[in-house]
């Protein structure tokens, strides 16, 4: 509007100059004067709206600024998503690289404990058991790292069902008893007879209790006591784990749920651990719709951890007690197994399972292309297939074995350090009959091979 007003004044001045030099131009001058006057009157008449016009201009600037901020925020979010994907890929890669050597440590220590190649002295058995416990502890740490990553990304799905809390507590007792006995700590279960069933995922509930009871044992003084209690409050069941151990300073209580947080200074720690257990406990409890809290009167006064779970509306599922391990039969006698693995130590471990435990013969190859060639030359009774192979991947090898009429019926067991559900599902979708994650014990692999062959034999008959 300012521009229009000044343009009108300029046009009027130009016409005045032109009229001064041109005869008979007065009518044009009058028209221009009237238009200029009209523009000035209109400009003055709108003075009450100047504020609104200025506000509109400011709003346009604000919208433009917010649009720039929104685009910048979208770019930051995209970068954060990319970093989260990179973190997940990094953890998966680290997990794979750590599980591969762990497979040899766990597998060979169990073979030695079986005394399959000669009798060991009591001291040698003790040392082998220590090696196995150390490897299991490292494997638990890897699993905790992966669980934290999956929980943060919302990639853990529960399969809740009606459970007998007493049965789960008994299973937890078998897990923590060795550590408790080693420190002369008594674990007492004080559940009332009328404690109701809970609606929970059995694997994750056991993980919650193992973390809490294991922490209580770790931070208790030798000769102490850890107590498990439970009760009902309305439509929730509360479970508590108490100890008389070192306790927690009140100012530290809100921070103990943070991942990697340690109450003790890193350089003055008396107790091991990654600082992930309580973070996992809190998130798993919240996924179940419950809450968890910690209480302590301070250092030296013990601690109490309590969490809640919903009461089940249906009777508890009947869970069979684990049966004693049956002896492993030589189900591969006279049969050949093709081992496809590029790690030498794992190759020899699998060979020992096939030949020493199951009485079969093992052929070994290190690549997918070689596997396909050997399978065509002589059809094996079973294939143990690593998924992460140089060149042709294990998934593609499984697909090609299924497409070839000569090998379409051969049982395939995927053996991999990749432990995520999507990798397991993709292996089964590619044509594998079973899946075992590294590290595995010789007994686990042997029983899986026996079950797979038995299932295949039944289907064939």
Compact description:
This protein is an alpha/beta fold and 461 residues long.
Describe what you observe in this structure.
The chain has 461 residues and is α/β, with parallel strands linked by helices. The protein is 53% helix and 14% strand. It has helices spanning 2-21, 26-45, 50-113, 122-153, 165-182, 202-218, 277-287, 344-357, 368-377, 394-403, 421-430, 442-460; strands spanning 161-163, 186-190, 198-200, 225-233, 236-243, 292-295, 303-310, 336-340, 361-365, 382-386, 412-416, 434-437. The strands form three sheets. It has a five-stranded mixed sheet with strand order 2-4-5-7-6. A five-stranded parallel sheet has the order 9-8-10-11-12, with helices on both faces. A two-stranded antiparallel ribbon has the order 1-3. Helix 11 (421-430) links the parallel strand 11 and strand 12. Helix 1 packs antiparallel against helix 2 (26-45), helix 4 (122-153) packs across helix 7 and helix 9 (368-377) packs parallel to helix 10. The model is unreliable at 265-269 and 321-325 (pLDDT under 50).
Fraction of residues in helix: 40-55%
Q: What is the chain-wise order of helices and strands?
A: HHHHEHEEHEEHEEEHEHEHEHEH
β-strand number: 12
Termini, distance in Å? 94 Å
Tell me the strand percentage band.
5-15%
In DSSP terms, counting alpha (H) and pi (I) runs of 4 or more, how many helices? Answer: 12
* Major pleated sheet: 5 strands, mixed
**Order of strands side by side in the largest beta sheet?**
2-4-5-7-6
Structural Rg: 37 Å
Residue-averaged pLDDT? 83
Low confidence ranges? 265-269, 321-325
Question: What's the overall geometry?
Answer: elongated
Structural class: alpha/beta
